[in-house]
């Protein structure tokens, strides 16, 4: 009985941690304004897309990039040693549009299947200082995407973090899970950036300057790590002074989601390998949130099972869920993901377990290639 009493007080501490994260950090997302870009600062922009075996996606989505309504921009297409018809598609596209620049990357022994190497060559080839990144399977939801993202550059702000969503597939529970995980990740990194602690961005919708890239020697500090061309680089250079958030109706990109659970697991394995290389402070804050999540669920279930102060435990659970629902609802509303709100607790519990399995699997066998 004494043990259960101790666990009850531990639960209260964990509950306070969770409430603190939601109210003090994640609640900051509700303060991000969805204002459209009204600045006159419109620098020339190089939009960069690195593609590996993406011939069909390029055919589908490149027209939405070239159709952007922006005064001066170029499209830098990088063929990362593809063995399908990616290069042919790129060449055909460049023949039709004079503002398209091509970079053809061959595999080398030192940088075999390394996206960072291919991106570096593309960045070197870019004409303009302001760079905007997306993926070959991404489509901006508006023809003003470049305008919205580039409009957040200023003399002080050289990094712009945006939101990259995934397409909705009707009737697919896996699709909702993938989109919820993406939504919750965005809630985390955008909220931390809002309080002056930016720790990552997503390459599906991300902008920074060529000057910043070469100032820190690009990806050299983590070139040996296969993934992390977006989050590790932002983790290295971003701070409260140089980072801006672009969350508006016209600034979102939408990507093709994985269709099978196994493909999604492979993708998440690559992504999760980078977190251990974040700055110490970021790792501590993210780890504390995850540990408090695990403990909250475990202790809540245990204490309710033994009816230990069950009225107070249940009240704490309901209060925590109410705060979570409110913040996720605001987040989902801003990011056009309203259909995910009701399933939030179930998805959260699944992701807590799923992340532990992925961490364990990656320790035993690390993913090798970006594709």
TrEMBL record:
The lineage of its organism: Bacteria, Pseudomonadati, Bacteroidota, Flavobacteriia, Flavobacteriales. Its EC number is 2.4.-.-. This is Glycosyltransferase. Keywords: Glycosyltransferase, Membrane, Transferase, Transmembrane, Transmembrane helix. Belongs to the glycosyltransferase 2 family. It comes from Bizionia sediminis. Residues 46-179 form the Glycosyltransferase 2-like domain. The chain crosses the membrane at residues 6-24, 284-304, 310-328, 340-364. GO terms for molecular function: glycosyltransferase activity. Gene3D superfamilies: Spore Coat Polysaccharide Biosynthesis Protein SpsA, Chain A (3.90.550.10). The keyword Kinase does not apply. It is an enzyme of class 2 (transferase). InterPro entries: Glyco_trans_2-like, Nucleotide-diphossugar_trans.
């Amino acid at each position: 009985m004494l043990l259960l009493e101790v666990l009850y007080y531990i639960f209260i501490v964990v509950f306070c941690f969770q409430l603190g994260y939601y109210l003090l950090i994640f609640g900051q997302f509700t303060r991000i304004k969805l204002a459209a870009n009204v600045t006159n600062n419109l620098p020339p922009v190089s939009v960069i897309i690195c593609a590996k075996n993406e011939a069909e996606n390029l055919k589908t989505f490149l027209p939405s990039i070239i159709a952007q309504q922006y005064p001066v921009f170029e499209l830098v297409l990088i063929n990362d040693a593809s063995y399908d018809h990616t290069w042919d598609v790129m060449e055909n596209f460049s023949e039709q549009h004079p503002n398209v620049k091509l970079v053809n990357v061959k595999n080398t022994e030192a940088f075999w299947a390394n996206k960072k190497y291919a991106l570096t060559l593309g960045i070197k080839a870019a004409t303009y200082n302001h760079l905007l990144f997306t993926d070959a399977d991404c489509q901006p939801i508006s023809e003003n995407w470049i305008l919205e993202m580039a409009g957040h550059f200023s003399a002080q702000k050289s990094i712009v973090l945006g939101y990259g969503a995934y397409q909705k597939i009707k009737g697919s529970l896996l699709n909702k899970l993938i989109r919820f995980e993406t939504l919750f990740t965005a809630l985390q990194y955008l909220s931390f950036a809002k309080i002056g602690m930016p720790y990552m961005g997503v390459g599906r919708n991300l902008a920074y300057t060529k000057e910043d890239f070469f100032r820190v020697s690009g990806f050299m500090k983590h070139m040996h790590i296969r993934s992390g061309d977006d989050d590790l680089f932002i983790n290295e250079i971003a701070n409260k002074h140089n980072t801006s958030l672009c969350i508006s109706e016209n600034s979102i990109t939408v990507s093709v989601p994985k269709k099978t659970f196994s493909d999604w697991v492979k993708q998440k394995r690559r992504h999760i390998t980078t977190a251990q290389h974040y700055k110490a402070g970021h790792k501590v804050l993210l780890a504390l949130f995850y540990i408090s999540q695990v403990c909250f669920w475990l202790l809540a279930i245990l204490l309710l099972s033994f009816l230990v102060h069950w009225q107070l435990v249940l009240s704490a659970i309901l209060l925590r869920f109410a705060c979570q629902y409110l913040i996720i609802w605001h987040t989902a509303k801003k990011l056009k993901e309203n259909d995910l709100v009701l399933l939030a607790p179930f998805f959260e519990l699944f992701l807590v377990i799923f992340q532990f399995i992925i961490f364990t699997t990656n320790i035993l066998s690390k993913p090798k290639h970006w594709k």
